[in-house]
Amino acid sequence: MKENVGGFDGAVRVLLFIIALSVSIMTGQWWWSIIGIIFFATAVVSKCPIYRIFGIDTNKTKKVSH
């Protein structure tokens, strides 16, 4: 799967991870941390399976193949 999560999108996902983790800690509802981990993982690997299903690509950098 090619990278389809761009820089700004990745930064927003990391911010959402921090928010979800904070909500999880404050409320004691563990499922918020699962949502946050998903956001963080997709930001780190720059790949989002849901984006692939819908054909969305926020990654503007194109790799040159030789």
Residue ranges: pLDDT <50 for 5 or more in a row?
Answer: none
What fraction, in percent, of the residue positions are helical? 55-70%
Number of helices: 3
Terminal CA distance: 19 Å
Please report which band the strand proportion falls in: under 5%, 5-15%, 15-25%, 25-35%, 35-45% or over 45%: under 5%
Mean pLDDT: 93
Largest sheet: none
Radius of gyration from CA coordinates: 14 Å
How would you characterize the overall build of this protein?
The chain has 66 residues and is mainly alpha-helical. The chain has one domain (7-54). It contains 3 helices and no strands. It has helices at residues 7-27, 31-45, 49-54. The two termini are 19 Å apart.
Features:
3 helices, mainly alpha, elongated
Layout of SSEs?
Blueprint: H1 7-27, H2 31-45, H3 49-54
Helix pairs in contact: 1-2
Outline:
The protein is mainly alpha-helical and 66 residues long. It has one domain (7-54). It is 64% helix and 0% strand.
